[in-house]
Structure formats: C-alpha cells, structure tokens
Write a structure and sequence with these properties.
The complex is a heterotrimer of chains A (110), B (128) and C (100). With 110 residues, chain A is mainly alpha-helical. Chain A is 49% helix and 7% strand. Chain A has a single domain (2-100), classed as DsrC protein, C-terminal domain (Arc Repressor Mutant, subunit A). In chain A, strand 1 and strand 2 (8-11) form a beta hairpin. The two termini of chain A are 20 Å apart. Chain B has helices at residues 27-39, 90-95, 112-121, and strands at residues 13-18, 44-49, 85-89, 108-110, 124-127. The two termini of chain B are 25 Å apart. Chain C is an alpha/beta fold and 100 residues long. Chain C has a single domain (2-99), classed as 3-Layer(aba) Sandwich (Hypothetical Protein Ychn, Chain: A), CATH 3.40.1260. In chain C, 31% of the residues lie in helices and 20% in strands. Chain C has helices at residues 14-21, 43-49, 61-66, 83-92, and strands spanning 2-5, 27-30, 56-60, 79-81, 96-99. In chain C, strands 4-3-2-1-5 form a five-stranded parallel β-sheet. Classes of the chains: A mainly alpha (110), B alpha/beta (128), C alpha/beta (100). Chains in contact: A-B, B-C. Chains A and B meet through helix 3 of A and helix 1 of B.
Chain lengths: 110, 128, 100
C-alpha cells in the first residue's frame, strides 16, 4: 500500500502506517489526518512531535497508557490524560497519533 | 488494548530470563517485544540477565554501522511500562569484566544463589 | 522444577548455567542437540555424575536415535524417555524452565 503526498508516493503497511520512519515529512501527517477528517492544530503537532522524539530516544511507539503518562510528565497533567488525548485523536492516541507521526503501530496494541 | 482497560484481576509473577548477547541473534530483541506486550496486561514482571544476556544492558551501544535497529535503547522505556525489576547475575558480569557502572539502566546485581530464590518464587517463565 | 536443555554443550554453556540453578529434587531433561551432553567420555559426564545425588537426569530417546546414539553411549543413570515420558515430566512438575 501507499499514500500520495504532494505527488510523491510513500509506502505504508496494510493498516496505513508508514513503512519507513525516515520517509516521514510534515505533509504526510497532514494528509493522513485529512483522511481521518482531522485538521491538525498546534495541539496535535505537539503530541506528534513528542512521539517522534520519544521514538528517537527509546526506539518504540509507546502503548497508550505509557504515552499518557509520558505526556503528563513532559507537557503537564492537563495534557497527560485520556480525555485530552482522545479529543485530539479520537481513534486512539496510541494508534492514530503514532500513525500521523510516521511511527509503527504501538507494541501491545491489538 | 487501546480502548479499554483489561480487568482480569489475575496477577502472576512473570520472569523473563535473558541469556543471549544482543545483536548476533534475534532472541534478545524478541524477548523485549514480548516483555512490552505482556506489560500491557499488568502482570508482576521481572527480568533476569545471565550469561551473555548481560551484554544486552551494556552502555553506549550503537548499531548504525550494522544497519539494525538499536532496540537496546528500549530498555530505558521499561520503567514507564512499570517494568522496574531488572536483575543481573553477579557472576556473569564479573566473568565478562563488567560492573554495574557499565550498564545503561538501573538494575539490581544478585549472586546466582539469590537469583535462584527469585526463580523459585516466580510462576511463569520465559527463557530466551 | 523441570529444566530442559536443547543445545549441544560444546556449542553453548546452557548445561553449566542450568546446573547452577537446578535445585535439589529437580529434573533435567536433554532434548535435541543437548543429548550429546549425556555421552560418556566427554567433560560433561563428570558434571552430570557429580549432580546425580540431587538431580534426576533424563534424555529424550527419539533425539538420541536420530543421532545414532543409544544406552551404550550414555553416562550412567540417565533415564531414556519417550514423548509420553516427556509429557509426564512436564505434568509432574509445577514449572518448567527451558535453557536455550
């Protein structure tokens, strides 16, 4: 499978996650979000960027429980909770935000 | 996993016994994947590193030159997965000229006699 | 506790580590390439006989046969078992550790 962004084709797996993390660019996230009827705000980008940094440091996409905790630690309690994150990423902050960020599906997600 | 909390209520003592060096075979990486998946089920998890398994925790590993993913960075994330009990066998460390300072994460160094007790208390074994 | 070993002792030190952890009353079963550890005239003969007072040793017959080995090649007092015996051992022991 693949996703078209600015006339360029990016390979994805069967669930729409980017095949190669290093291919990622901002417009990939924008296009993926649009397909899910989401327009990315600064709040979305904050989480997406957080995830990319997290992956760089730990080499994994965090499970949602861990993401919530880690966001809380870094960005404060008002953002480190399910309600906030699910409002931004209704299909699940683990799955959906990781996808936008070009990360693989979180380990431990079925 | 994403949308609901699991509430099985049964908590068992899991122990993952790691005895392989990190990059020559897939064992170590696979073991870590299994640990992370099981962590989502909120079990009582311990990790033991013995024999060449202690090499998995060596500080400063860089796999750029062998073009593989440096999964050993993930050990640093275990704490956030509530996996906090990491035990390293003293004899294996010493045999390899290593000490606790050479390791990338906080561990408890135990003599095999103490580790043996831990094994006896464990209920579910995963050996890699 | 039942301990199984499946690698040749010449290739891996699983036997050594297993014996470090096997407690009195436990069982050790050799399968696959680990059956070579049971053969007489090797360094492993001593490691096994020294521990026989505390540990029961078993070897899987089909794996021996596959490698051209039989009772006459084995260190004394290692019991040869078949697959049913393997299942029985697992059932008898509350826990199993596999030394790979």
């Amino acid at each position: 499978m693949a996703i078209e962004v600015n006339g360029k084709s990016f390979e994805t797996d069967e669930e729409g996650y980017l095949a190669n993390l290093n291919d990622w660019e901002k417009d990939v996230a924008t296009v993926m979000a649009k397909e899910d009827d989401i327009e990315l705000s600064d709040d979305h980008w904050e989480i997406i960027n957080f995830l990319r940094e997290y992956y760089e440091e730990y080499q994994i996409a965090p499970a949602v429980r861990v993401l919530t905790k880690a966001v809380g630690k870094k960005l404060g309690k008002d953002k480190g909770n399910s309600k906030y994150l699910y409002e931004l990423f209704p299909y699940g902050p683990g799955k959906q935000a990781c996808k936008f960020a070009g990360l693989p599906k979180p380990t431990g997600c079925v | 996993m994403e949308d609901q909390e699991l509430e099985s209520g049964i908590v068992k003592k899991f122990i993952y016994v790691n005895r392989k060096a990190p990059h020559g075979t897939i064992y170590a990486h696979e073991a870590l994947e299994v640990v992370l998946i099981a962590a989502a089920f909120e079990q009582d998890v311990s990790l033991a590193f013995i024999d060449d398994g202690v090499y998995q925790l060596k500080k400063g590993q860089n796999t750029d030159g062998i073009a593989t993913k440096n999964f050993t960075k993930t050990f640093g994330a275990l704490e956030m997965y509530d996996v906090e009990k990491l035990y390293v066998e003293k004899e294996s460390l010493e045999e390899r000229g290593l000490s606790e300072d050479d390791l990338s994460v906080d561990v408890e160094v135990l003599a095999s006699s103490e580790l043996k007790k831990l094994f006896n208390e464990s209920e579910v074994f995963f050996n890699f | 506790m039942l301990h199984t070993i499946n690698k040749s002792p010449f290739e891996k030190d699983s036997l050594k580590t297993c014996l470090r952890y096997a407690e009195k009353g436990s069982s050790v079963l050799f399968i696959e390439d680990a059956v070579y550890a049971c053969t007489k005239g090797t360094n492993f003969e001593k490691q096994i006989t020294e521990n026989q007072e505390n540990i029961s040793f078993y070897v899987l017959g089909p794996d021996l046969e596959a490698r051209g080995l039989d009772n006459s090649n084995l260190t004394n007092n290692i019991e040869i078992i078949d697959y049913k015996g393997f299942v029985k051992l697992v059932a008898e022991n509350e826990k199993t550790q596999n030394w790979l």
